[in-house]
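Long-time lurker, first post. I've been practising inverse folding by hand and with some scripts of my own, and I keep getting stuck on stretches where the structure tokens seem ambiguous. Below is the full token string for one chain I'm working on. Before anyone asks, I'm not after the true native sequence, just a reasonable design that respects the backbone. If someone could post their per-position residues I'd love to compare against what I wrote down in my notebook.
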């Protein structure tokens, strides 16, 4: 079966058992698009008594983004229960809670900024994909939203595990898990009109229909699940893993769940951490549970 889709590309004849996991640290100025997003959206404030002053000056914007994601996920769960309790989608008043509206717009703005920065060559890979540690024939799993690696057609095996900016609806935010989106049984609340709209496509949807689809990632559930499942397959069969530029932070819930659950520690011969941070080695050993003598750390690919 051809598993190529908008979030993964797989060459059926791929022989490599080396998995390359790419994080934001592999991207030069990789955090700048996110910084610009919050700079544009948060009100300018010189008042340190205002919460926005602290939000704007957070060194790691992933914390604030995670909090917005928590509010979004709680709100959409409450919305789903409300619709189910009140007789289904057709009887819903089509009013979205503010945390949902805020988050959906934020996600689009983040995607737009990443696309702009890439097109203007303001972000780039910190090294070549052909080097002494791996090459373009290996299996690439990127947790980045940008398409820097995806657009390289010589990379024939790649998973955009956290989605891609070309499709904001697909983007997995810090602390989110793909499995979060699989808990909703839409047949419980969807009436015939909505299901017909989904079947016919976006051109037949109202604005509220389309936003509802965005909220629950309805149009990307299959592809996100395929990416999730292929990631399991690759990590499970790997005898070598290179982790380049990932801080292995708890924000990266999807990645941590994958490597801690599915890495075959008996089969793994070698794990290479490419990260200048001194704690990266200890994190990798602790999370994966592999023998320390199988793990090495280098600061960069040069």
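-- Answer (accepted) --
I ran through it position by position. Result:
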């Amino acid at each position: 079966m051809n598993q190529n889709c908008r979030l993964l590309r797989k060459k059926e004849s791929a022989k490599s058992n080396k998995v390359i996991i790419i994080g934001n640290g592999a991207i030069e100025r990789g955090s700048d698009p996110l910084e610009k997003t919050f700079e544009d959206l948060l009100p300018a404030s010189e008042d340190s008594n205002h919460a926005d002053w602290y939000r704007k000056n957070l060194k790691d914007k992933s914390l604030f983004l995670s909090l917005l994601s928590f509010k979004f996920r709680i709100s959409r769960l409450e919305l789903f229960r409300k619709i189910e309790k009140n007789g289904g989608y057709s009887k819903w008043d089509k009013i979205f809670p503010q945390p949902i509206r805020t988050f959906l717009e934020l996600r689009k703005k983040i995607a737009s900024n990443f696309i702009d920065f890439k097109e203007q060559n303001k972000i780039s890979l910190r090294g070549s994909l052909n080097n002494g540690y791996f090459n373009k024939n290996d299996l690439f799993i990127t947790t980045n939203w940008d398409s820097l690696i995806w657009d390289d057609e010589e990379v024939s095996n790649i998973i955009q595990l956290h989605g891609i900016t070309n499709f904001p609806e697909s983007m997995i935010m810090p602390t989110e898990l793909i499995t979060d989106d699989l808990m909703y049984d839409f047949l419980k609340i969807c009436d015939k009109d909505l299901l017909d709209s989904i079947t016919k496509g976006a051109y037949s949807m109202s604005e509220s229909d389309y936003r509802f689809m965005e909220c629950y990632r309805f149009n990307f559930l299959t592809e996100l699940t395929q990416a999730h499942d292929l990631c399991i397959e690759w990590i499970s069969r790997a005898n070598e893993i290179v982790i380049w530029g990932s801080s292995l932070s708890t924000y990266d819930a999807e990645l941590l769940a994958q490597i801690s659950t599915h890495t075959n520690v008996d089969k793994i011969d070698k794990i290479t951490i490419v990260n200048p941070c001194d704690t990266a080695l200890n994190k990798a050993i602790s999370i994966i549970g592999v023998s320390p003598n199988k793990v090495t750390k280098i600061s960069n690919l040069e």
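A couple of notes from the structure itself: The CA atoms of residues 79 and 162 lie 24 Å apart. The mean pLDDT is 88. Happy to go over any region you disagree with.
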